[in-house]
């Protein structure tokens, strides 16, 4: 993409309404624009990152054997009356009347609707286990929408639902989700720590939240610092292997890590003092096992192996897809702007032309641009007639992990400059070597 043809409305001033750094940077980098309290338009740069995050979530869900689908945002109140949640959900639910005076609502989550789909089509244990998920907009009329996309009223969420014959199978689904979530967050360059949490309006006994540690996080968290040393890495997982998934679950959840809702001071004091941490975190996901709560309420039973009806065991699993943009920026920025992890960056490489209009510099930039595109990567070329300082400031603000700087002086010596946004280190390289490095970084060589 050439910057002169792109829509990138960066702001020079720091917006007064934004209290935390991720919100400020998303506004300044022209990623989002508020349209009403807690409701945002996603401008091209923000939308690109949102889609990248969504793609990672889809890929990891597919790997775990879960089926993507899509349910409507507007639902009839009837199913919610059946489950009893129409009244229980309270003021967070946006209630709407259609022209026939029928009660409708904007979905805050979808346990009822998915259970209705299940009961209409699945009647035998032979069709299980089954896990389906969607990535869809949700609406919760939060009392205090704030911090930009972090606590929106409209937000983008991955919500998944498992249907299993036995509690044992449903707990495997729980463990499988935990494993797939660990992989998902790591691919986004995040460490998200599973913490024992409270189930709130979703219900159930077993639940973990995934928290990214950040000073601006809304949750108070208590943990054994040894949990921050755990990484999932690129280990191979067989998602059908119950013991293997249970092993990972145990590895990542036995050490003390809890949110304030479930914090137990006595248990925490058993952690060696030098490893006890009290901090703040951003909740980027949550997994639940709630047994037969919704299948009982909505009559979702299947015929078991002995011919008798069995209420199915269920769980649900959420990832805050739009919130993740804020969480990633909170975890990865400096005073100049965002530093995107390579896994989610909106463009792979920024090209800065120090002397636009200089034949040699223009030709070198065009050539780099073409070579980067030929690798299947996306360059963002700052081809504006601007001072170098302004171009660098924009690149630093929008946070592309790699920048190639091209100028007449370097070209005289046959070199361009490759700069890492994260370390700030630059190397002078001949263009072909710079391209080879980019290929290596993004696994294209
Ligand atoms: N049905 C279950 C699992 S699908 C559910 O709704 N879980 S949840 O309430 O925990 O939401 C899932 C994730 O959505 C949360 O972990 C959080 O990351 C994100 N989320 C929740 N509320 C908001 C909000 N107001 N703004 C942005 N993200 C949110």
Question: Any overview of this molecule?
Answer:
There is one protein chain. The chain contains 14 helices and 23 strands. Strands 3, 7, 8, 9, 10, 11, 12, 13 and 16 form a nine-stranded mixed beta sheet that branches. A five-stranded mixed beta sheet has the order 20-19-21-22-23, with helices on both faces. Strands 4-6-5 form a three-stranded antiparallel beta sheet. The model has no long low-confidence stretch (mean pLDDT 96). The chain has helices at residues 21-28, 44-63, 77-83, 85-88, 111-121, 167-187, 242-253, 265-268, 293-298, 321-331, 359-374, 388-398, 408-412, 431-441; strands at residues 32-36, 39-42, 67-68, 74-76, 94-97, 103-106, 130-139, 154-164, 193-196, 206-213, 219-224, 257-259, 276-291, 301-303, 309-311, 313-320, 333-334, 337-338, 349-353, 379-382, 402-406, 416-420, 426-429. α6 (167-187) packs across α7 (242-253). β14 (301-303) and β15 form a beta hairpin. With 445 residues, it is α+β, with helices and mostly antiparallel strands. Residues 109, 140, 142, 151-152, 155, 157, 159, 202, 283-286, 316-318, 320, 322-323 line the site of 5'-O-(N-(L-cysteinyl)-sulfamoyl)adenosine (5CA).
């Amino acid at each position: 993409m050439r910057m002169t043809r792109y829509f990138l409305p960066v702001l020079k001033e720091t917006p007064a309404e934004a209290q935390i750094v991720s919100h400020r940077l998303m506004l300044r980098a022209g990623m989002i624009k508020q349209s009403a309290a807690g409701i945002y338009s996603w401008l091209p740069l923000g939308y690109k990152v949102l889609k990248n995050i969504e793609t990672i979530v889809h890929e990891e869900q597919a790997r775990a054997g879960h089926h993507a689908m899509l349910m409507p945002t507007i639902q009839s109140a009837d199913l919610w009356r059946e489950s009893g949640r129409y009244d229980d959900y309270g003021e967070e639910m946006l209630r709407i009347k259609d022209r026939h005076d029928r009660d409708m609502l904007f979905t805050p989550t979808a346990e009822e609707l998915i259970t209705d789909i299940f009961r209409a089509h699945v009647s035998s244990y032979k069709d299980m286990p089954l896990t389906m998920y969607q990535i869809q907009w949700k609406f919760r009329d939060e009392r205090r929408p704030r911090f930009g996309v972090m606590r929106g009223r409209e937000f983008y969420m991955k919500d998944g639902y498992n249907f299993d014959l036995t509690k044992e199978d449903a707990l495997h689904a729980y463990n499988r989700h935990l494993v797939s979530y660990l992989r998902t967050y790591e691919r986004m360059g995040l460490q998200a720590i599973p913490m024992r949490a409270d189930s709130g309006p979703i219900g159930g006994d077993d639940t973990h939240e995934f928290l990214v540690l950040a000073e601006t996080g809304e949750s108070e968290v208590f943990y054994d610092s040894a949990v921050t040393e755990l990484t999932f890495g690129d280990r191979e997982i067989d998602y059908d292997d119950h013991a293997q998934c249970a092993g990972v679950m145990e590895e990542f959840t036995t050490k003390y890590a809890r949110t304030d809702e479930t914090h137990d001071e006595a248990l925490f004091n058993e952690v060696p003092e030098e490893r006890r941490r009290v901090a703040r975190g951003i909740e980027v996901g949550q997994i639940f096992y709630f047994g037969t709560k919704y299948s009982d309420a909505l009559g979702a039973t299947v015929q078991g192996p002995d011919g008798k009806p069995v209420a199915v065991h269920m769980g649900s699993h959420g990832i805050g897809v739009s919130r993740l943009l804020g969480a990633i920026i909170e975890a990865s920025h400096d005073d100049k702007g965002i530093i995107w992890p390579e896994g989610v960056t909106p463009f792979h490489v920024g090209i800065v032309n120090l002397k636009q209009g200089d034949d040699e510099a223009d030709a070198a930039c065009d050539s780099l641009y073409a070579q980067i595109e030929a690798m299947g990567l996306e360059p963002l070329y700052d081809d504006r007639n601007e001072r170098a300082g302004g171009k660098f400031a924009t690149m630093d603000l929008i946070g592309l992990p790699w920048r190639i700087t091209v100028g007449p002086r370097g070209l005289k010596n046959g070199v361009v400059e490759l700069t890492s946004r994260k370390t700030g280190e630059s190397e002078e390289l001949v263009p072909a070597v710079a391209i080879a490095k980019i290929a290596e970084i993004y696994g294209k060589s």
